[in-house]
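Worked example 2:
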Amino acid sequence: MKNTDNLAKWLKNSEWDAFLVTNPQNIGYLTNFWGSFGLYLQTRSGKYLLTDGRYSEVATTLTDVEFIEYKGGIPEDFINKVRGKIAVEDTLTLAQFKNYEAWFKDSHLEPVAGVVEKLRRQKNNSELQIMRAAQMQTDKVLIPFLQQHLRVGISERQLKFKLDQALQAEGRFGLSFDSIIGFGPGSALPHYISGERALKDGDNILIDCGVIDRHYCSDMTRNFVFGKPSESYLKEFKDLLSAQIKTLKAVKAGVETANLDKMCRDELGDLAEFFKHSLGHGVGIEIHEAPTLSARSKEVLQVGDVITIEPGVYRPGHYGIRIEDCVIVEDSGFECLTKTTKDLLSFSENGGVQVLVTSA
């Protein structure tokens, strides 16, 4: 079944005569057109892509979608495909919405939230195969890379630059997001920007990274140490690892995401005070998409969801720990996409590795 067929079902059961898609990721998902400029209009009887001449060669190869070339001004050929009630994505700016209202002056336009995003949420087998491949590319790189490059004196920024190069050499479409590498106090900031701090003996290291393969993202966070960590770090790593594993075991279709968030915090006990963000999020074409796993979420896990489980403990000025796996939700459990070990590994100056805490 084509993704546009799912949108056709939505249209059939709605009050709308057409749906105007403006988000490039949503256009790509529906039509497999990934250009930087385009509008997609789906009516009850037709599917139309408006883009300019730069993309004409690609657009003409699309199946089941009529390509209309945009040559500037008001595209009458495109607009005349429908008159009536048109739903539009609610991510438009006011100026963009007013512009499309002027284009479709004989129709009624109204913003509607999350239509395609909800369709994107449940991945089909083809999408899941791509996401497995994306995570495999990330898994392949990380540990050998650290053995080669972790040395006293290397800065967070230098290590990040080298890791990004290694990931992009392995990944087909670049990075899922700007990689995060924090040593010591930097790791205590959940969305840290890697700086000039040099690696020291005894530092903990937090790395959050991923690649894109055929438009789909991977995402994982792992923790390491250089030399011997503090006793408090070791204890809290063990406690967080235990909570993350127990929470993972509760993942299956039908579970309320808010309950997962609560379960993890309950498992952390007093450490929950230092868990400053939601438990996780959906992953797909975008690195953050539905569903949200938080205390305020009203969502329920569905078969085909791809989500992260990523609790963290952050001690300002000292260290941060976050353990993140990406998993596929199944009827009675989950498939973990992330294969990189969750063991706490200690690296030495000569590239040696010692297991300090096992996740088995």
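The chain has a mean pLDDT of 96. The first strand starts at residue 18 and ends at 21.
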